[in-house]
Amino acid sequence: MIALPSEVDLLLALLGLALVAAGAWSLRNWLVGRHYGTLEYADTGDRIDRALRAPRYRLSGRPDELRRLPDGRRVPVEWKSTAGPPRGPHPSHRAQVLAYCLLVEEASGRAPPFGVLRYSDGAEYRIPWDGSTREEVLRLLREVRRPYDGRATPTAGKCARCRWAAGCDARIDRAA
Fold first, then answer.
1. pTM
2. How far apart are CA 101 and CA 143, in angstroms?
3. Residues 47-94: pLDDT tens digits?
4. What are the CA-CA distances from residue 33 to residues 81, 84, 91, 109, 124 (Å)?
């Protein structure tokens, strides 16, 4: 005859699983902290404005996390709720991390060595921050601030899925 576990046995098993899960979470945080420093800030969605600002570039933003390395430099970390792309980070995600690097540099007076991009499936990318990536983000800022030059090539498929279609002057129904 097989004995069924008692309520005490089940409770102890659940407690053991909870302790293992807590230990795994703690280990994960330790490993992340070892590579990217201690957590200084996490964007929890509260109403307190903790945006980083770079007035001379007319730019502001809040990375998902800000970590402090042992040497005092800060590293922005951006979390994405999607799986990591098989060919590397999306250009727009990379640009977002670079913009956060610029904001960290402006706000702290010290350049971060890199920014971090993390995807929900565990894929992680260190985006270096140096003279060439700094120039890249400044070029992007100049480009998005230029007046619209009409380069859009609307298609029925693009326009049907576009969230900006209602106010767009390049919609397919206006292009003809």
1. 0.69
2. 18
3. 566 789 999 999 999 999 999 999 999 999 999 999 999 999 999 999
4. 21, 21, 26, 22, 14
